[in-house]
Design brief:
With about 260 residues, this protein is mainly alpha-helical. It is built from nine helices and two strands. A hairpin with a 2-residue loop joins strand 1 and strand 2.
């Protein structure tokens, strides 16, 4: 399995489609910075809510879907996984090797694109008082269980579809539709929360409740983030529980599928 993980990670690093997606994201952030929407003079805590809450809520689930679809489904189209089984690889190695490679890549990318801009502004302008550091770390840590659930879903979907195209379409279009649907249903008092990884991510990265404060002689914006222990436990249970159900359900079908 280790060899499969290494090979898929190497494949993902060289994937031109992923590089194109990364370039597109970088261009968006550059345009926002030049237009003044992303304030380079903001302290780390103020930028945390603006950047993480506004930008990453949609970017992260789409990125997780595209990466997992490419990692798990790209070489299913040319029967590479089938050949691995025919030439002696166990099915669980083929399946879970691709899953772990995709998960590792998603986790590394998440850490990089989340932390680097915030660390840069914190070093440049200080952390500030808009958000307590312990809450920021809790939010950052909770990203990974939710993205684990997303990677599990797209792993199962990629193996069920036997290619990467449909999962990528669902990642791009479905994530946006879920966000719109969640906003509409919230207005109707039927909120979507634990039902999907996207809506759980929306709840985690909700920085819309703000107030005014005073920090080192200056008026500041304060993010009133509410993350009770009950919510965190619920997110952990649904992320690992539903994610594992998708992952092992997909493997159960792949294990019994005919290989040719």
């Amino acid at each position: 399995m280790l060899n499969i993980i290494k090979e898929i990670l190497r494949q993902l690093r060289r994937d031109l489609l992923l590089w194109a997606f990364g370039a597109y994201f970088a261009i968006i952030m550059l345009v926002l910075a030049l237009s003044g929407e992303f304030d380079l003079d903001a302290c780390g805590s103020l930028a945390y809510g603006a950047y993480v809450g506004d930008s990453l809520t949609l970017i992260l689930p789409i990125a997780a879907g595209i990466i997992t679809s490419r990692g798990c489904g790209c070489d299913l189209r040319d029967k590479t996984a089938n050949y691995e089984v025919l030439f002696g690889k166990r099915r669980y190695e083929v399946y879970f090797g691709r899953f772990f490679a995709s998960l590792i890549f998603v986790f590394i990318l998440t850490a990089v694109i989340t932390l680097l801009p915030i660390l840069f502004l914190t070093v440049k302008n200080g952390w500030g008082g808009s958000l307590a550091a312990d809450k920021a770390l809790t939010i950052f840590g909770m990203l990974f269980p939710i993205l684990f659930r997303a990677v599990c879903f797209y792993t199962a979907l990629s193996f069920l579809a036997s290619h990467d195209i449909v999962p990528m379409i669902i990642a791009v279009i479905g994530s946006g539709l879920l966000m719109v649907s969640a906003a509409i249903m919230a207005e109707m008092d039927y909120p979507l929360t634990w039902h999907t990884a996207v809506t759980d991510l929306m709840r985690l990265l909700d920085f819309s409740n703000t107030g005014s404060g005073f920090f080192k002689g200056r008026d500041i914006t304060v993010y009133k983030v509410d993350l009770p222990a009950k919510l965190i436990v619920r997110m952990l249970l649904t992320s690992f529980g539903i994610g594992s159900a998708w992952l092992f359900g997909g493997y159960a079908i792949f294990r019994k599928r005919d290989i040719s």
